[in-house]
Amino acid sequence: MDLLWAMVPLSFVLLSIAIWVFFWAVRHGQFDDMDSPAHRILFDDDEHAPQKPDAAADTANEPPKSHD
């Protein structure tokens, strides 16, 4: 029974901290745009520069040389 005298006030303190964190997040715009970050990963807006062909890639496409 003595444990209740400690746990009930502790639960109220934790509840008040959770409520304060929630209202802090709302005031600072944490919940303003919930959809865009999830869809942003799907948009490919990276511009890739064309790569120069390697010398090894050039020789890989040549026909094999005959050794007569």
From TrEMBL:
Transmembrane stretches, start-end: 6-26
InterPro entries, per database record: Cyt_oxidase_maturation_cbb3
Region of interest (Disordered), ranges: 42-68
Keywords: Membrane, Transmembrane, Transmembrane helix
Segments of skewed composition (Basic and acidic residues): 42-51
Pfam families found in the cross-reference section: FixS
Name listed for the protein in its UniProt record: Cbb3-type cytochrome oxidase assembly protein CcoS
Organism: Venatoribacter cucullus
Gene: ccoS
